[in-house]
Write a structure and sequence with these properties.
mainly alpha, Ribbon-helix-helix protein, CopG family
Length: 87
């Protein structure tokens, strides 16, 4: 990227393929979409999935946990026993 925030420079990358990747590229380009386009889209979609997963993990970690199972029941039982305690 250049110094200007609006300026973008395209970079190229080399992808080494194996039979599994070639088969996947054949499937993705079957409709006539060029290989660079499907590779770019796959990278963008993978990044979006990762960002969503990270956001979901953060949201779960921010959720209030409340009391562990049994704590509220234990407190209620203790309170009930106090009410029925012998003088």
């Amino acid at each position: 990227m250049g110094d200007d925030a609006g300026e973008r420079t395209a970079e190229s990358i080399t992808v080494r393929t194996d039979p599994e990747i070639e088969r996947a590229l054949d499937v993705l380009t079957r409709g006539g979409t060029p290989r660079p386009t499907v590779i770019r889209q796959a990278v963008l979609e993978a990044a979006a999935r990762l960002e969503r997963a990270v956001a979901m993990r953060r949201a779960v970690l921010r959720m209030p946990l409340g009391d562990p199972d049994g704590v509220e029941a234990g407190a209620a039982l203790a309170h009930e026993r106090q009410d029925h305690a012998l003088p």
